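Hello Y.,

Per our agreement to keep a running log of every chain we model this quarter, I'm adding this entry. I've kept the format consistent with earlier entries: sequence first, then predicted structure.
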Amino acid sequence: MVTKKGKKDSNIWAFLGVFLGWIGFLIILMAKREDKFAMFYAKYGLVLSIAWVVVYLVGMIPIIGWIIYVVGGIILLVVWVISFVSALSGKEKRFPILSDLADKITV
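Predicted structure for the entry above:
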């Protein structure tokens, strides 16, 4: 059974995992690999970081890329904020495509 302090500690690690992106993933991987909740959000942070890079690269394409960049950036920002709020509240929030990609990461 997880104590309240242990659960809060796990929530903070999960928040760091998603908030810091790929750096957070590496930190959680090194420090809290056995914490399933923190690793869930660390994988999410890694997938969101990769998605940001993809949206940025697509944004270099004139006109259609710019539109995708703006829309994709807004969507990723909303998902990112919802993710770290969910991590702090202790709930596993799943999003259709991103969750599937995060589940495929094995460490």
